[in-house]
Design brief:
The chain is of the alpha/beta class. 42% of the residues lie in helices and 18% in strands. It has 10 helices and 10 strands. The strands form 2 sheets. Strands 3-2-1-4-5 form a 5-stranded mixed β-sheet, with helices on both faces. A 5-stranded mixed β-sheet has the order 8-7-6-9-10, sandwiched between helices. β2 and β3 form a beta hairpin. α4 packs across α10, α5 packs antiparallel against α8 and α6 packs across α8.
């Protein structure tokens, strides 16, 4: 049962956690949202500088929360891919330094694998194989989870990720950043059936549509045209109805693909990870559809949906228990397929 200190700095949260196997000893998250909100999105250079300012105090706080000394730590982990290169370098450099100073193994972690492991924190008895629906600002994928480090990508978005679509529609509706929580909150006041919007299907060369791939670019354009038309015809746009209709369409599209994929591959458990896993409409639709097909759906606790180091630590502990460690020469990568995870280890 490895105890790992993990660092996550792939985007705009400086996060440090200490995890023992699947138990969270401490979890520190310093969000940068209030800063990036002024720009309408994450500014990479600003994110890197804020990580530098925060990382040391976050590490100290994680140790204090856990009530542990360095003698109790078995390894040090950090997210190394994918993400913003400058931001990733801050966490990776800190983790490597701690690894050398305290003579501890270093474990580089793939960010998306961390999101898969977020479900182990809420459901410690979860075992492979299962289907993982990863939905965040940068990724939307259906992953066949066969074992630790063994993954098959069964479906993905061909353009915008689901979270990215939420941010763009929120900007279009002048709601602010980040878009996901704002649209979800506003949608509670609107009518999800007010406007019919396209789900966005991906055509196959031989005819028909891809059963698992998604597309949200067309949906985003449809919302733009809808808003333009509403602005011509109405003095006041029914923003809550637009938000609810958009959210309903995204939730329906993701649910349809996840259920079909699980049934086709004979997987009776679907886990959800990433920031959009917190969305209320997705949770409602997926749980209802899964129940109708006798499938189990697992969502992480809300605090483990967005970027955090606890999920990175849980993932790192499993790799370390299996003898997987990374060389100190490991670098960061802005893009890295989840199917290439094992290249991070010696």
């Amino acid at each position: 049962m490895a105890t790992v200190l993990a660092i996550e700095t792939s985007c705009d949260e400086t996060a440090v956690a200490i995890v023992r196997n699947r138990y969270v000893c401490s979890n520190v998250v310093a969000s940068q949202i209030s800063t990036h909100k002024n720009y309408g999105g994450v500014v990479p250079e600003v994110a890197s500088r804020l990580h530098l300012e925060t990382i040391n105090s976050a590490i100290a706080e994680a140790l204090e929360q856990a009530g542990l000394e360095w003698q109790a730590i078995d390894g040090v982990a950090a997210t190394c891919a994918p993400g913003l290169v400058g931001a990733l370098l801050v966490g990776l450099t800190a983790a490597k330094t701690l690894s050398m100073v305290h003579s501890l193994p270093f474990i580089g972690i793939h960010h998306l694998e961390g999101h898969i492991y977020a479900n182990y924190l809420s459901e410690p008895t979860l075992e492979t194989p299962f289907l993982s629906l990863l939905v965040s600002g940068g990724h939307t994928s259906l992953i066949y989870v066969k074992d630790c480090g063994v993954y098959e990508n069964l479906g993905s978005t061909r353009d915008d990720a689901a979270g990215e679509a939420f941010d763009k529609v929120a900007r279009l509706l002048k709601l602010g950043y980040p878009g996901g929580p704002i649209i979800d909150q506003l949608a509670q006041l609107g009518n999800p059936s007010a406007f019919k919007l396209p789900e966005g299907r991906v055509s196959l060369p031989e005819g028909g549509y891809h059963p698992y791939d998604a597309s949200f670019s067309g949906l985003k354009t449809a919302v733009l045209r809808l808003v333009q038309q509403l602005e011509k015809d109405n003095p006041v746009i029914p923003v809550a109805d637009v938000a609810a209709s958009f959210q309903e369409t995204v939730a329906r599209a993701l649910t349809k693909r996840a259920i079909a994929c699980a049934l086709d591959y004979g997987l009776n458990t679907i886990t959800v990870g990433g920031g959009v896993a917190a969305n209320s409409a997705l949770r409602k639709h997926l749980l209802a559809a899964a129940q109708a097909h006798n499938l189990r759906v697992l969502f992480p606790a809300l605090k483990f949906c967005t970027d955090n180091a606890a999920m990175i630590g849980c993932c790192a502990a499993d790799h370390l228990n299996r003898g997987h460690t990374s060389p100190l020469t490991l670098g960061v990568e802005s893009r890295l397929s989840l199917t290439q995870v094992m290249k991070l280890y010696q």
